[in-house]
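Quick note —
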Amino acid sequence: MKKLTAIVSLVLAVCLLAGCAGSPVIYYTDCTCPADAHVQTPVTQPEATEPPVVAEGAVKTGLAVVTSVADSVDGEAKYDVTIAAVNVDDNGVIVSCYLDSIGASVTFGADGVITSDPAAAVLTKNELGDSYGMKAYGGATYEWYEQAAALADFAVGKTVEELRAGAVNESGKAADADLATTATIYLGGYVAAIEAAAANAQHLGAQAEDELKVAVLASLSDSKSADAENAGNAQLNVDAAAITMNGETITSCAIDAVQAKVAFDASGVITSDVTAPVQTKNQLGEAYGMKAWAGAKYEWNEQAANFAAYVTGKTAAEVAGIAVDEGTKPTDADLSTSVTIAIGGFMALIEKAAQ
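Predicted structure written out below.
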């Protein structure tokens, strides 16, 4: 009996050693049950998987405003604006993403007189929500804001290259099966806007855990009818800000703006090139002309960046309390040395974004 026990122990030891090199195997030796009572199939344990990588530390914040007037025709200036904002880490991985869009128009007759209301409010598609009408009038399952949010969520955790490769097919529609269940609209332009925002991204103070928030203000109020002496001007102004917040504190800020102009004559015929690129004020840089034509010390893009840096580290309430004159130009000594333009619009953007 002792000899049998020793043999069993030796076999067990050899089996256990063999098990160390492969799948764990369970053996039963000291038992009075029937011989086949504990027959078991060796169980292979799943290999440990790496936890998903979550970005930590400083991230870059980027904003893009992409505008086209290419759909304009005589009698109607049409605007298509996409606003994208991202936070990306130093490896180019998108940590957070936001999308919005504006579809607006100005109509004018064969006499050059504007027939739409330039004073009417211009809302983004996110602000319009269900009233944008894709469900009610287009039979869509999901409204525009829901489809845009699906693409923004899909972008998180991917690089721009991965997003471009996996999000859309050759026709610009969703290529990913899960994304396609929600996003049925043309996505190509929105992916391009995300790419532009990532290309603009800079280290402005944001951390990976901060909340990305965006505000957009748009107006057609600078539009003017044509007459015998003056060309008409259909103009959409869009101001946008992307901020990150940690609690009540603004941790980064990026601001840009665009003036999209379509000229037309007294017979309602468009006279400007609607296929030309529409650049933002940041893209124009010194070509915007504040130094050349107005004698300013700093160009618009520099002043917007100086304001953005000034409000970083402040709360929205503190931004609202910045001292300004009647024209909303800053009177604070630290700010007024580098920002000489009216900042009322900038302050309104911060207030709206922080809500």
